[in-house]
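batch_manifest entry 22 of 60
target: Glucose-6-phosphate 1-dehydrogenase
source organism: Paenibacillus konkukensis
requested by: lab member K.T.
priority: normal
notes from requester: please return tokens only, no post-processing; we will run our own comparison against the previous entry in this batch. if the run fails, retry once and flag.
--- input ---
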Amino acid sequence: MTNTVFFLFGATGDLARRKLYPAIYSLYRERKLGDRFAVIGLARRPKTSEQFREDVLESIKEFARYNVTKDEQWASFAEHFEYMPLDINNTEAFRELKTVADRLDDKFDVGGNRLFYLALAPELFGSVSHHLQAGGLLETPGWARLVIEKPFGYDLPSAEKLNAEIRQVFEEKDIYRIDHYLGKEMVQNINVVRFANAFFEPLWNNKYIANIQITLSETVGVEERGGYYDHSGALRDMGQNHMLQMLAMMAMEPPSRLSPEDIRDEKVKVFRSLRGFQSAAEARANTVRGQYAAGNLKGKPVVGYREEDSVNPESTTETYFAARVFVDNFRWAGVPFYIRTGKRLPVKTTEVVVEFKNVPNNVYLSKKHKLEPNLLVFRVNPMEGIYFKMNGKQPGSEGAIVPVAMDFCQSCQVGLNTPEAYERLLHDAARGDSTYFTRWDEVALAWKYVDKIAAAWGERTDNLNLYQAGTWGPDQAQQLLSEDGFKWWPVNGQDEGEVAWEFTKR
Ligand code: BG6
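--- output ---
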């Protein structure tokens, strides 16, 4: 049980509505929260606690995994929620907040634990931290932790500045930087599959693995976030964090112990081993950037990126990004990791494909047959599961060899009811487990890597490739792999309308 007062800054925002309230509700329903907790919603907008509880109810009805009706059970949950309008530049208001927090702490017998969740623009993290201190909110008999959303800065210098400001108030051990991909079941499962099964580890290296492909494709455009996104782009929005974090999970060495610091140390070693680019030309040769133009998605016409709300009509921001990444250590020398992400692609999916080296082509069966390589695929999102593709004899044939799949469909077993990333992460932050939060050194090294790419792109204006919405992005991303004799494996068993791997269909 985790006794906590949650301070939700940005309580009227989209993240709180879609993810945080539903997550708190699931934790409550699963008795992971107990009754000794309170939630204080904080935002500029005036509203009463009663209105706030109604909004929370609506968001839970719409987005939570558990059904809710306005009854006694709801009433006993909702009484833990209060709202306070707050001007975050006013220290006096933070003193008032302390009074409210102390009262709720007494009422629910919390014992002084405080979790400050900043679902705010990063420019505000530093000043809010200082105001929390000045308002006396950190003087508490329990612990005080800061949970912050990405983006953590815009580049390494801005991230360093931000970090320095926060560190004047909070120690690193009390800072929980969210990368919600680390809260996803199947991302966490990467470590379990790798380290809890004896047969993967001996093969998990450059002797047996030809390449690793990480795809994070989205069908959505920029929605209402044009203002933020146009400043950020796919490299900063997804590359610096989710993509590199998943890469680190795939590439890291087994940690010596299962402690958060040991696990994060191993990830840091991967980030340190990322092969930096010696020149801007080299960075450009190993990356692709694209932007969606108008097209069709699921049979409906959609506008191009430059026509989206709050986007500069002449914007050169990328909505697609692919890269060939090398991890220069003994395990991975010579194995390319291909990563790609984009908006307005044909399907919403996150998959990690491990392509194994093929059997030698001059022996036995491979002399007569064109054999497909073995693939191990982690399906992260929205379907969860793992499958392994291998070669087998086609039943009844004279010896035809066909690819067959061993398919563990997690979603088929637990339905789409696996815990949301935010449930896991909120619970972890409240009980002080920082394993699946990013430590400062990881963040800094990821920025260092990404900044080189951004700088190389910035030098030239001719490297933005337009792609039609509803397609798999610029052709250059295919070339990136074909140069090495590889291809992107179809995701979700589907590539541009063509159904591949019939055998995996249920
Ligand atoms: C966020 C990005 O971090 O992740 C968004 O800012 C993106 O642009 C989202 O849409 C994708 O997350 P998920 O969990 O829906 O795959």
